[in-house]
Prior knowledge:
alpha+beta, Peroxidase, domain 1, 4-stranded mixed β-sheet, 4 strands, globular
Amino acid sequence: xxxxxxxxxxxxxxxxxxxxLAQVAADLEAVDRSMVTNVALxxxxxxxxxxxxxxRAVMNDLLEGRVRPEARRLAAFAxxxxxxxxxxxxxxxxxxxxxxxxxxxxxxxxxxxxxDARKRVGGYAVAVFEGxxxxxxxxxxxxxxxxxxxxxxxxRLRAALTDRDLPxxxxxxxxxxxxxxxxxxxxxxxxxxxxxxxxxxxxxxxLDWLVDEAARARGWRVARVRTAAPLADDQRDQLxxxxxxxxxxxxxxxxxxxxxxxxxxVVEVGDLLVDASAxxxxxxxxxxxxxxxxxxxxLGRTGPRIERExxxx
Length: 313
């Protein structure tokens, strides 16, 4: 099944009471039957010329006020998350998964490649983010960032959370001890799902990726800035304006101090990397010098001649 839909369904179904689960399962079964009996609906949702966004809008409009909100969201997400010809199968899968949840059958998440595992975590995050205000999204983003830095800076904790031989439930218990009562419930849910729905060896990178996803959910992007020294407020504001002009979107500037950079800063926004650090400049100079030496013998015979001055006698 589509990994994003798998994650989205996990998030929607895990928070429902048994009574609500039964109603959602019944609603989804009715939608599944409609896909079989209603030729016009089936034709509209399996038409490859209809965009995913349009399919989701059609399903939302059709089910508004007729089924529980959770069933409507699940059916609409299913209609948009797969290629058009696969929509009926996606709806059937969601209905089946809801029935499993009613029977208290816990989902089993198969091991996926890095890209698909991220999609599964992303689908889960979409469902979680839908119920949060901008203020809550900002808080979750900040908590995810701080927790990720703690994991990355604590070798024993990082080793435990990325150990594929440890059951996911054991790794989740570790994070529960660290986060329960100290972080937003949405943050706790996201971290727990990364450990069961993502890849063990990719935990830190996936958490970092979720920070960016939380920022995007409220229309922002995250600019990760590494500097040799702390930035003053006016320097941070000036840097944020420069990055916003460069990316065309508002940014959250997250600063990490790394003394080994010597001076300047390294800025990362998504795939964009700007290395304006002194260390970066020195490394590039070294590469140029080494490259010149390798090609022509220490800057080449045609390169500038460097001579030592004899000391005056």
